[in-house]
Amino acid sequence: MKIEIPEKKKLVFESRIPIRWGDMDAMNHLNNGTYFRYMETIRIDWFSSINCIPSPDGEGPVIVNAFCNFYKQLEYPGDVLMKMYVSDPGRTTFESWCTLERAEAPGFVHAAGGATTIWVDLKAQKSLPLPDWVRKIVE
Fold first, then answer.
1. What is the bridge-based pairing of β-strands 109-121 and 59-70?
2. Number of domains, the chain
3. What is the C-alpha separation between 138 and 45, in angstroms, rounded?
4. What number of other Cβ atoms are within 10 A of residue 114's Cβ?
5. Going by C-beta distance under 8 Å and a sequence separation of 6 or more, which residues neighbour residue 57?
6. Is residue 4 in a domain?
7. Which residues make Cβ contacts (< 8 Å) with residue 24, sequence separation at least 6?
């Protein structure tokens, strides 16, 4: 499916991941849960790329919701081109978005999803304002 990404979403990271045989389900397509694992993978890789590595005694990002819309199944073999977008910084949160495409057919989105991320004092389990350096990346 060809979808348009609204202008307010900012592309911040791209990555590829191979579809593994074990990612398939009995229907011979990518298991629904694996789409979420792929979106988690690009989100963590992006966090690492911006040196956002939380410590259990420090602060960092926590996902408070996630969703995925499935447009066309992905099947083994092949590589998935994942694109990560961010938008809507709030006092303590921002939105992240991800599209999943076949690497050999970029521009055709097989699935798209996202997550709301909240900045948290991990030890106290309380929200904190987004740090200025994160806000600058997300805006």
1. antiparallel
2. 1
3. 16
4. 23
5. 122, 123
6. no
7. 30, 31, 75, 76
